[in-house]
Amino acid sequence: MKKLYRKSGRWFGLLLLLSFSFAYRPDYFEISKQLDIYTSVFKEVSLYYVDDTDPGELTQKALNSMLSSLDPYTNYIPEEAVEDFKIRQTGNYGGIGASVGNYDGHMLVTTIYPGFGADKAGLKVGDIILEVEGEDVEDRSEEALSEMLKGAPGTKTKVLIQRGSEKLNLEIEREEVHLKAVPFSGRVQNGYGYIYLNSFTQNCSAEVLKAWQELKSQGPLKGLILDLRNNPGGLLNEAIALTNLFIPKDKPVVLTKGKLEEWQKTYKTPKQAFDKDLPVAVLINSGSASASEIVAGTLQDYDRGIIVGRRSFGKGLVQESRMLPYGAQLKVTIAKYYTPSGRLIQAIDYAERAEDGSVVKIPDSLRSEFKTENGRTVLDGGGIDPDIETPSEEASDLIVALFQQMHFFDFATDYYRSHPKIAPASDFKADDTLFREFEAWLKNRDFNFDTHTGRILKRLQKAAEQDGFDAALATELNSLQAAYEKEKAQELERNKAVVLELLQEEIVARYYYDSGRLANALGHDKDIATALEYLANPEKYQAILKP
Questions:
Q1: Catalytic position from the list 290, 312, 341, 515
Q2: What Rg value do the Cα atoms of the chain yield, rounded?
Q3: Best exposed site among 77, 153, 207, 305 by fewest CB in 10 Å?
């Protein structure tokens, strides 16, 4: 009987293999041939190459090179990087609850997560980490230092830091750190709610629901703003669960189409909506991708809310993690997803390459039209277009340089150390006095920046030298340079309003963490102001949702 069972099992396995082959007909001979070639090359190089080789490094480079020809989201994850990959998916890890960055050769504490070990031990943003457990970290990478600080919850680590001119020893207990997907929510103006979602990690939809319930407990809500700006996406099931808070049961949210039959699937809302009538505005921008676009696109297709901001990123691809030998993983694109109206919002066709090998962006002229439930026209092939587009404000060369050279960061650190307390996060305002203080502080820094005009002037001077015109044009070129320097000196004053807003947010973050930064931004955020303008006017709001 056992022998018969084994034979029938083999026949069943063969039938499965045949059915798979008939469905997709992969060229097994070609696959086997290429694997044999790769194995042979790898063996020959390992045995006979003149210098020593590292088999693991060779393999990783080969795999990364192969996968880079597909799309940016199909990645090989070696065993040592799997833990970080899991953190990005779940938002949980064992550590001290702080982020670090390498700037100017120093390991700088850039973020403190409230309530965890680093916060309890008194570690502050702006502190420089010198040693961990007696080991100098000066030459360590950010990744290596992060690994040193992580560990099992309940264990402790000793850290030597520098704070200004003072050196301090701290003992920090590691904990199970959960990075909140909703770092801030609150009420804005007369009864309107605001929820910021920064990623689609595990249970993020439950965090949004909890924040929404808390907002309702504070009094009746007239409308809700869901902020998905710069949200790169994450878990598909969380996008469906979040959409379900707004959309009734059994409504299609997303359709996936892939090579295998199991990936040809329509995902529907499994539960009753938490609230299917409250006016909603979803904020998006070019940093809103993947799961963010599923939520925004589905609400748009059902005319459930208005979309405010700038066109989203355009990532209509679904990834799945596949286990590999020796603890490694492969994150592979398995399907494309479509919104309920039938839109594929993928903006780049990775299968089509230009002659130079670069990817091809789908031109607006080739985008197809689809209809929302109310009959409004929406387009595919280029992300989610907002219903109300707000202007994109490009940062000036001055602002970019102040950011890159950490001057906003360092000034906020100095301000925090010399001011024991400030007004509540939402009330703190940077004024002219603070601006003049920053202006004077900046003069003592090694700060310089270039502009588009400055770069053109340099090219002009170089061209004049090459052509032999520099002596003849010296007076004119010097006059141009002097006029340029005079105008450049006024750039800080011209950017005063933006500088004050950024200083204000950075300073508030020192006292009230990232949630304070978000609370403070509510008062001057133009996208939020636009959303409120429509939510507060039912006629304007409904007009957007009509064809």
A1: 290
A2: 28
A3: 153
